[in-house]
Amino acid sequence: MRNFVRVAVGCAVVALGMVGDAAAQQGGKPVKLEVDLREAARRVYHAKMEFAVKAGPFTLVYPKWIPGEHAPNGPIVDVTGVRFFANGSEVRWRRDPGDVYAFGCEVPAGVEVLDVQMDYLLPQDPVGANVPSASAQVAVLPWNLVVFYPKDVKSDDVKFSAKLRIPAGWKFATALPVTKESSDGIEFETVSLTTLVDSPVLAGAYMKTYDLSPGQKPEHRMNVAADSAAMAEATPEEIRAWRQLVVETGALFGARHYRRYDFLLAVTDHLQVNGLEHHESSDNRVPERTLHDADTAETMMDLLPHEFFHSWNGKYRRPAGLSTPNYQEPMRDELLWIYEGLTQYYGVVLAARSGAWKPEAFHEYLAATFARLDARPGRTWRDLEDTAISSQLLYSAREAGSTWRRPVDYYEESELVWLDADTLIREKTAGKKSLDDFCRAFHGGESGAPKLIPYTLDDVVARLNAIAPYDWKKFFEERIHSHGPGAPLEGLKRSGWKIAFNATPNEHVKSEEEAGHVFNAEFSLGFAVHAAGLDNADEVGEVVWGSPAAKAGMAAGMKLVAVSGRKWSPDILREAIRAAKDSKEAIELLVENNEFYQTVKVDWHEGERYPHLEKIAGAADVLGEIAKMKAAAVK
Ligand SMILES: [Zn+2]
Question: How far is the CA of 337 from the centre of ligand 1 (A)?
């Protein structure tokens, strides 16, 4: 998954000692599943299942811990219309009072098939962990939304034969192999529940598919579904960068663990921005104008490289604690700073290597990200590892208070941790080796169909030691347990660069402002504020803990009304920040807090302030070396 808190501003798999009954109930017969998306625009998916059963107690469960989401957030609240039938007669079910995801029943004597039906209700706007997956013109089907499976079986052991109906005239894309397509529906190859849940479907009225590795095996396809034909059209430059991304991963890993790779890209303002990784595909959801607006594209630049990198790091190789036998077994999130953190680092590095980000844009992104981390006081009480362990709480935490609570920092702060490791390997081996060698050794191996090889921290440490001998265990422990002050910027320094502030706007921040309709003064006063014309117009976002605005009494959720007695606008606030630079007077802001007006005086006299990367005099440009294209340039 990719974290979008900022943008919004706004092996051996452990055997469980399972009860054999449930698996035996199934008798090796696949579950027949029929899903109907024809009412997607009405925000309901219908599903029917047929389970082979024998007489006696039988329990079905709904997926709770969703791979890649790292949290027990299977949206059970919107599972409705649940009915069980045997030979046409309704069978009473009872939910387990100790587990609301489990539905038990007593299969009557002589019954061999249990028919189950359900409706899944999709929200139109995000509600807690439940997010929209369908709009008027686009639908995404993560199969876990519409399946039950027998309790206590391994998801590898239970097989599903799925059939899907989509609205007339719509097209679809998925990594799941299709066996038959007719006016009656799409039939898929019988696969394990693991593969089914790992292979979502993207469907839509306006879809366009781009071949990203013409004439080569395995195939790579970019499937775009949009709210109009025009918005699904990519520019030649975008297609070139996607193709370069494919060859860059070939150069990096030397192996691919999929039969074909499908990027599923929904470009619509009616689903929530997100990305979810799978072995042979990724479910990416971005704003409608992403392929046509430079500022929106800028804020989404690392999403596709991030989710693609996960096919190797997260899917093929996965922390043992996240390699659970089914979707009810709790996950252990403590190594997310590798699963998500290494992916976050290479997501941005590959965005640069593929040419999607020019060097200046890459620098501006890093400067903004690292400056934010460096100013985040939450590190003083909560270490990086705890943000990973707490991820099941933090993904749904509100933005307000995030600089003190800490958000899911194992994404961005791990960019620093892995940049540190990368530059250290380069230093210790006089430039002969790099973190790329670790990726090739750890995530490469043999190409072929999807497979999962779990790992522990010791495995990572051992592999790094084989590349460049060092006390890597201590290296990581110091970084994941650090309390600062400030972010761990050693790697940035070793890469030849440092953060410097001046009054010139940071280009990445500017794109975020344009795309998100905010005015951002977080590096000066300490807050961003939503611009006019939005539902949350004038609302102040997170106020950086300890910043001049926080000290003056401002908090997230207040509304900015006026600056020095005049109705606020971005230009007026900017002018006030400039004017205060040569003055001893505080910047006077009128804010609304619930129904009460309050004047706050922000003591800030350093003018506008934005971060940039500045080359350290005389140092080698290691960062430039890291970001350089490694494969031959595609045409
Ligand atoms: Zn991720």
Answer: 10
Q: What is the DSSP string of 22-72?
A: HHHHHTTPPEEEEEE-TTGGGTEEEEEEEEE--SEEEEEE---S-TTT-SS
Please report which residue ranges of 169-261 form alpha helices under DSSP H.
Answer: 193-197, 236-253
Q: How far is the CA of 309 from the centre of ligand 1 (A)?
A: 9
From ligand 1's centre to the CA of 305, what distance in Å? 10
Give residue-wise pLDDT tens across range 551-566: 999 999 999 999 999 9
How many A from CA of 348 to the centre of ligand 1? 12
Strands (E), 166-259: 171-174, 178-182, 185-188, 191-192, 201-204, 206-211, 219-226
Distance 223 CA to ligand 1 centre (A): 20
pLDDT band of residue 17 (cuts 50, 70, 90) is: very low
User: How many Å lie between the centroid of ligand 1 and the Cα of residue 192?
Assistant: 23
Q: 1 C-alpha to center of ligand 1: Å?
A: 3
pTM: 0.95
Contacting residues for 272 by C-beta, under 8 A, at least 6 apart: 126, 131, 132, 285
Tens digits of per-residue pLDDT, 474-528? 999 999 999 988 999 999 999 999 999 999 999 999 999 999 999 999 999 999 9
